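Margin note: ligand = cytidine-5'-diphosphate.
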Amino acid sequence: MSPASMIAIDGPAASGKSTLAQRLASKLGYLYFDTGVMYRAVTLAALRREVSIEDEAIVTEIAKCLPIDVRPPSIRDGRKYDVLLGGEDITWDIRSSEVDANVSQVSMYPGVRQAMTQLQREIGLRGEVVMVGRDIGTVVLPEADLKVYLDASDEARAYRRYLECQERGEGEPYQEILRSMRDRDRLDSTRDLAPLRAAADAIVLNTTELDADQVFRRVLKMAQN
Ligand code: CDP
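Resulting structure:
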């Protein structure tokens, strides 16, 4: 049998989605597409223009004409790709705590989601893709051949994010990361449109006690069956 061609990976913040997706994509020779980057880029663009994040009309306008591009990494500083906004490298700017604090509000707006989902679906339907997000298995690519929903305890996820920040030389305290992550998860899973949840046909994996290798090997087996 040929391997799954459209692979959807969803789950809450820092559940290990991007590590898994990147390894799967590289093993299978597929495109790795992290949809969170798009919501983060809209948020950064809105913050930079100093518009109110509460202003749905303006934020939606920004989303509709977002000059975003994602390319293979040009610098070896731990990044998995370059994210460009109007040609400017914003790869690390979209990971700031300010973006973290506002991105769930931005991604609630129907117009923002519509613009992002349409583009994501076009890319996903070409196949040979590992797509990561919150609503890939439920809304963006319900026809995916393999759907995985990753979860882990709040503490394990916050600790992973804390280590990532440390590696980048950012000193954000663990407790602060835990608090902000819980806020974001709450907003993401209770919004009306495309909330964070496992698709009925998704395989749910709790990774609290699993390391990245174990998760990768399990899901690769599923993808190849
Ligand atoms: O890396 P992490 O899991 O912390 O977040 P992300 O995947 O970069 O997503 C950032 C935010 O974008 C999420 O908290 C959601 O609010 C939003 N998002 C979404 O609504 N739908 C997606 N498919 C992907 C992200």
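Residues 13-14, 35-36, 39-40, 103-104, 107, 133-135, 184, 188 surround cytidine-5'-diphosphate (CB under 6 Å).
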